[in-house]
Amino acid sequence: MSKLASFVRMISVGILLIGIIGGGQAATTQVVTASALQKAASPQDFMQQATNELLQKIVEDRPQYKKNPDLLYQIVDSNISPYVDFPLVAKRVMGQYYRQASDGQRQRFVGVFKDSLVRTYGNGLAAYDHQTINILPGRGPVSGTKASVQMEIVSNSGQSIPVSYELQRNEHGNWMLENVVLNGVNLGLTFRNQFASDMEQYHNNIDQVISHWVPDLPKVHQP
What we know:
The longest helix has 25 residues, at 43-67. The protein is globular, with a radius of gyration of 18 Å. It has helices spanning 3-19, 29-38, 43-67, 69-80, 86-94, 103-126, 187-201, 206-211; strands at 132-135, 146-154, 160-169, 175-182, 185-186. By secondary structure, the protein is an alpha+beta fold. Helix 4 packs across helix 6 (103-126). It is 53% helix and 15% strand. The chain contains 8 helices and 5 strands; from the N terminus they run H-H-H-H-H-H-E-E-E-E-E-H-H.
């Protein structure tokens, strides 16, 4: 798989995580900045600003995490954890099996799921090599609380992969990223199906599923 395909697969997971905002977080400078970002004039503005700031941070900190790979995961953790309700995300991934899991199993999966995605996200960001990321214009004024933002990631050789972001405004009027469709593949549904498949493979043994959990990202077929 090319560097472009690997980058798109992994960074899309990271962007998906950033959009699932958890409630009850302590007020910090990061949260204030995100709130202002979410109230941008349009969904396209929100995604453009978020993308620009994210990639700027990656470029600036590259010399440090090149020397210490663990620093990259720390950077990722500190930047996404204030925004993500990991227990809610894990619950959605577990689907119907959440009800039969014990409190201890639920908490354990939250930890494993968070760690796996932080590392996946970090590896995706490390693969960034100044690819062009275009936020495409909206097709008209946004009405209601839902919107879809189209993006394309283009390599220097001209290869392009489409990404679609599904957003919804919450009760405070903030744009929230609910899901990512990568080259036609729904990432949220992919993880939920993976958990169900793993449950079948390990004969409904939740502990085994948790112990062997690794995000199974969809392959990206380039044109």
